[in-house]
Amino acid sequence: MILAKTGNEAMAYAMKQINPDVVAAYPITPSTEIVQIFSNYVHDGLVDTEFVAVESEHSAMAACIGSAASGCRTMTATASQGLALMHEMLFIAGGLRLPIVVPIASRSLSSPLNIHADHSDSLASRDSGWMQFFCETVEEGYDSLIMAVKMAEKCSLPAIVSIDGFILSHCMERIEALDEQKVRDWLGPYKPNWNLLDLDRPILVGPATLQDYYYEFKRSQIEGMRTALPKVQEVMADFEKTFGRGYGVLEEYRCEDAEAVALLMGSASGDMRQAVDRLREQGGKVGMVKLRVFRPLPHELLRKTLTRFKTVAVLDRADSVNSFVGPLYNEVAASLYGAENQPELLSYVFGLGGKEFSPDDAARILEGALAGRKDETVTYVGVR
Amino acid sequence: MAEVCFDLAGQVLEIRWHGRGGQGAKTAALLFAESALDTGMFIQAFPEYGPERMGAPVVAFNRLSDKPIGSHAAVRAPRVVVVLDPSLIEPAQVVKGLQEDGILLVNTTEDPVELKKRLGLPEGVTVYTVDASRIALEEVGKDVPNTPLLGALVKVTRVLEFETMMKAIEEKLADKFRGGKEKFIEPNLKSIRRAYQEVRC
Fold first, then answer.
1. Nearest residue on chain A to B73, judged by CA atoms?
2. How many CB pairs under 8 A join A and B?
């Protein structure tokens, strides 16, 4: 069924089709509507979900952890300061290997106060043990959220699905909605390996493990993320087989004979796509690599893909304030370290706090990448 | 009346709406996109969020195409500009970036030829005007120029079939005003039909 949906509407619609057991949420701009629309579904009896209205995002994630530990399929939605307030709890969900799934409308972090898009919120949660998926369009957000549930449960890892705040959350686009029953059948019931309420197999959740076992627990969690990528790919393949829409971990656009490519995440990929087309018309050998999965980091795939090109411009919609480069650049550079045929790697930071990023901006980056080396370590695109 | 008929083949039609907070520029953009969807097009509709308050200048955008749409940036070189409040023409620089063969559609009592001359617009630009506020006051009972302007917009762009749009809008309004058929839906539909007929260039 073809529908016109904003990003928030599409995420809420996906949640309705997923029909989670529990949603505990506290609304925040620009993801407020996800929670608002979903609570309408609850009110109208269109889902079986227990909706828990809480007093903060910290409590929202705490409730989600309790719910997921009890064996329930659990979701919430948030953004920016909300995700930041959950920060402490994110690590607990990660450490307990609870497959909580959270759509976020990515937004900058204060201060100064700003409600618009960048990836500061999700990337600040980088080390919390959550899978992270970034989406270019409303339909991709919708599909990714449905897939994330299956991935999270398969990997016993929580997952964040990012759509860019306002740019996607408040943009109405065409989506081809999937059949609800087919989605529910495809997901099937959640069968946790263990659960707190199973009195026949009692377990202890969240005990202190000091010098004796903490390290071993962490090593096991790390292994969970290390082995997640093939499972993520399996779910994508299964989704494509069932619903006919295919996605990659990273997706190449017109890269076959490219010399210079741009690597980026999120909605700006559409602007970059247009810029690639424009330069291709003029004979420029350029392409785009869109990274959809940031955690687990597909480092081997990045190495294999990027060593085919002479120059790679890495675009970060966030900055680490580390006196060096953006977070994505760091990860890409580390993935390429020691590889033969290393490409020239250029760092660009763009679009902080919703600063507009147009196909013209994207074209200038590609032109710069074609020309090769640049003078400055990082280029801050469009800053005055 | 000379009508421009857009051939979408491979192109993206970009529209920019100018209004004041409360006039429904965003709602109009969303309704227009939803109507276009029913004809199988790819669509985008989004507002530019600034300080949100009644009366403040607001901008919303549409993109329509027969192919998937890439860019999510604001529309800077629109083919069509729709103005809900004539007092915004100068302060909001509504014609900024308007393509040389573009369309300016304004809710005003002013004569379109006079307006074009007054603004010193390029020869290729076609100016249309319609008194959407009066139509809204007479039909709906309040100054909500956004819905009538949809009728005028379809007339001057012909990018959608008028009756297809009317059917889509009726469905959307029925969703919005549950049970308000006589009070809201019929008057709004009538205002769209009137603007479709009364728009001039």
1. A358
2. 65
